[in-house]
Amino acid sequence: MSGWNVRWMASTGSTNDDLLAAGRAGAPDKTVLIADHQTAGKGRLDRRWETPANIGWAPEGAASLLGESGRRVSREEVMAVMLSELDELLSLSPEQLHDRYRRRLSTLNREVRVELPNSTFVEGRALDVESDGRLVVLDSCGATHRLDVGDIVHLR
To answer: Could you tell me the CA-to-CA distances from 86 to 91, 123, 151 in Å, in that order?
Structure first.
């Protein structure tokens, strides 16, 4: 994990809050904080959650690592691979990163419902993701929507 400042903690309120405070205090670039337990996790749109201790920490699908390798994979090993991949992504130009993201995005060319924060939604075909991150959706009436926030549900 060369070049990364990685810390693990048993418990915290919010890793986002901790990292913001660390940044204000002069933490180096590429600082990563991993907590086994979060009591006041925060996400986009002020969404909150609790991460109970000992429920697992890896992304969905990571359970297949044991099956693929035939051995238990430590979180340190997974972190090293993830940070190496992040280093590669950080080395790309914005255009290269956007192109790679679009190629791997399973949402494009699918029917979707985008649930918006005001309790409305847009349904249609996801056509593109613009370089600023907006999802372009063509609805059944032929109107194009450029959406920068919402929960995406894949239909059909």
So the answer is: 9, 33, 25
Which one-letter DSSP state was computed for residue 61?
T
The closest of 156, 92, 55, 138 to 147, measured between CA atoms, is 138
| 77: Cβ contacts below 8 Å, ≥ 6 apart | none
Per-residue pLDDT of the chain (156 residues; tens, 9 = 90+): 678 999 999 999 999 999 999 999 999 999 999 888 888 887 777 777 666 666 655 555 555 555 666 777 788 888 889 999 999 999 999 999 999 999 999 999 999 999 999 999 999 999 999 999 999 999 999 999 999 999 999 998
Q: To the nearest 10°, report the CA torsion of 1, 6, 23, 134.
A: 70
CA distance 54 to 56: 6
What domains sit in the chain, N to C, each tagged with a CATH number? 5-91 (no CATH), 105-154 (2.30.30.100)
Report d(CA 18, CA 72) in Å as an integer.
30
Q: Which residues pair with 146 in a beta bridge?
A: 136
